């Protein structure tokens, strides 16, 4: 699942260094850097409120953003955000330029679906998400905001592996081990004892 591209207005930042950065922040903006796609790094400024608003939506670091700089629209992905250690206020942002044919390496969050339908959950078990993100490679237009982990048929003791994750077209996994455990159904202690007596677990 992909989302519409959000646009941020940005401006060229004159001067670098901590002193200049503090001056920028006093204006209500934050310093940022725009780099990549065979271009020299460009210091810019951006309104942190725009970023904070988008952070409330799923998959911020897997989504693409258009930066409008001096009338030019530049497709990017946010690679890093720096925050104040106490106030958590945004201090700096890193945006990477991406061409239409670029292959982007990105960590995509995993999203559990159909939990209520799982036989194991119905028996009181819980979904244990072993991995919370997975590294993928994809073109900008095919980066998903999340990968869905369907636990519909999982019983207590079952495991779901990386090879069973359904990928959107144009998306490739980077992890070398297809048997990597992604999720399990964990039993409450009272059920776990009964299952152990019966013996065995199942792998989907």
UniProtKB/TrEMBL annotation:
Entry-linked InterPro entries: Rbsml_bL25/Gln-tRNA_synth_N, Ribosomal_bL25/Gln-tRNA_synth, Ribosomal_bL25_b-dom, Ribosomal_bL25_C, Ribosomal_bL25_long, Ribosomal_L25_dom, Ribosomal_uL5_bac-type
Phylogenetic placement of the source organism: unclassified sequences, metagenomes, organismal metagenomes
HAMAP family xref list: Ribosomal_bL25_CTC (MF_01334)
Keyword field: Ribonucleoprotein, Ribosomal protein, RNA-binding, rRNA-binding
A Pfam entry, by short name: Ribosomal_L25p
Domain Large ribosomal subunit protein bL25 beta residue range list: 104-188
Domain (Large ribosomal subunit protein bL25 L25) ranges: 11-95
GO cellular component: cytosolic large ribosomal subunit
Presence of the UniProt keyword Cell membrane in the record: no
Biological process, per Gene Ontology: translation
Organism from which the protein derives: invertebrate metagenome
Single annotated GO MF: structural constituent of ribosome
Protein name per the record: LSU ribosomal protein L25p
């Amino acid at each position: 699942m992909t989302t519409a591209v959000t646009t941020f207005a940005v401006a060229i930042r004159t001067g670098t260094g901590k002193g200049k950065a503090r001056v920028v922040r006093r204006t209500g903006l934050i310093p940022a850097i725009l780099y990549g796609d065979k271009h020299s790094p460009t210091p810019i400024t951006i309104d942190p409120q725009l970023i904070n608003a988008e952070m409330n939506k799923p998959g911020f670091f897997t989504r693409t953003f258009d930066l409008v700089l001096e009338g030019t629209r530049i497709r990017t992905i946010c690679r890093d955000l720096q925050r104040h250690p106490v106030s958590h206020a945004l201090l700096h942002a890193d945006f990477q330029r991406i061409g239409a044919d670029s292959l982007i390496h990105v960590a995509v969050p995993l999203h559990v679906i159909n939990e209520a339908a799982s036989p194991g959950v119905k028996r009181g078990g819980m979904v244990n998400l072993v991995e919370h993100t997975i590294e993928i490679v994809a073109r900008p237009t095919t980066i998903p905001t999340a990968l869905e982990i369907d636990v519909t048929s999982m019983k207590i003791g079952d495991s779901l592996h990386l090879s069973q994750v359904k990928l959107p077209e144009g998306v490739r996994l980077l992890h070398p081990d297809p048997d990597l455990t992604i999720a399990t159904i964990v039993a409450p202690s009272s059920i776990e004892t009964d299952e152990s007596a019966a013996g065995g677990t199942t792998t989907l």
